[in-house]
Amino acid sequence: MTDQKTADIVVPDVSVPGVPAPDEASEIVVAGSAAPGGFIPPREPKYEWGIAVRSVTDLLNDGSHPESPEGSLLILKDAIGEIVRVGYAPEANNLPVYLVEFPGGKLVGCLEEEIAPVLGVRSAAPGRM
């Protein structure tokens, strides 16, 4: 003979304002999905800080440089600079953003498609390029 016990589970009818009842739920957002409000993990950056890069296009002010009018030219195409910091832009789906110091000490945040390495990308092995 097998000892099996069954239990009746009673779920009380509790409703919370603003939260749909289980039969009213229409969409579940899974972490990592591209759905609005879902978490999108940051993309690995192609370039590391400390490498020399050139601008592949004219860089214009998107409004983040208050000393220059929006839409004005910040950096000319083919200008050489150095990546001084790598971060992420949550408002742009966690894309890598590179803070590049150009001649004259001008700091500009650049996306990967706006810059290209001058001599190549650093290798992971110390002392090797």
Automatic annotation (TrEMBL):
A Pfam family = NifZ
Q: Which UniProt keywords are given for this protein, alphabetically ordered? A: Nitrogen fixation
Q: Which GO terms describe its biological process?
A: nitrogen fixation
InterPro entries (alphabetical): Nitrogenase_MoFe_mat_NifZ (IPR007415)
Q: Name the protein family.
A: Belongs to the NifZ family.
Q: What is this protein called?
A: Nitrogen fixation protein NifZ
Biological source species: Skermanella aerolata
